[in-house]
Amino acid sequence: MKYRVIIKAMVGGTKLARNSLMRSPSKSYTIQKRTHLPALYESQKEQVKVCLERDSNSHMMPRENESKKSEGVKVQKRVLCYYLYNLHDKFLAENPNI
């Protein structure tokens, strides 16, 4: 019983399959945290946002009540003109370094 609890905890922590953990000879795994590069991610998020908010990729909702207040600023809602996978391909073509 106690080994099932240990295996269950390891499955939750490592995101590995339970069967592979049960078959492994060693029950010790080290979990490596992914390192994030916040400055790089923030610049990429801003590039994606600018790309999606262009008038060629989306258009604004026409009515006054179709707006959203975000961080004290009123922003009009937008609707994408194309499917997201098409916009993804277009973004990658415009930004080959990402």
Q: Can you give the mean pLDDT?
A: 81
Structural class computed from helices and strand pairing: alpha+beta
Strand content: 5-15%
Number of helices: 4
Uncertain residue segments? none
Instruction: Classify the helix fraction into a percent range.
Output: 40-55%
- Please provide the count of β strands: 4
Order of strands, main sheet, comes to: 1-4
Name a few traits of the molecule.
46% helix, alpha+beta, two-stranded antiparallel sheet
SSE layout:
Layout: H1 2-14, H2 18-23, H3 38-52, E1 58-60, E2 67-70, E3 73-76, E4 78-80, H4 84-94
Antiparallel strand pairs: 1-4, 2-3
Structure description:
The protein is built from four helices and four strands. The chain is of the alpha+beta class. It has two domains: 1-33, no CATH class; 38-94, no CATH class. The strands form two sheets. Strands 1-4 form a two-stranded antiparallel ribbon. A two-stranded antiparallel sheet has the order 2-3. The radius of gyration is 23 Å and the shape is elongated. The N and C termini lie far apart (48 Å).
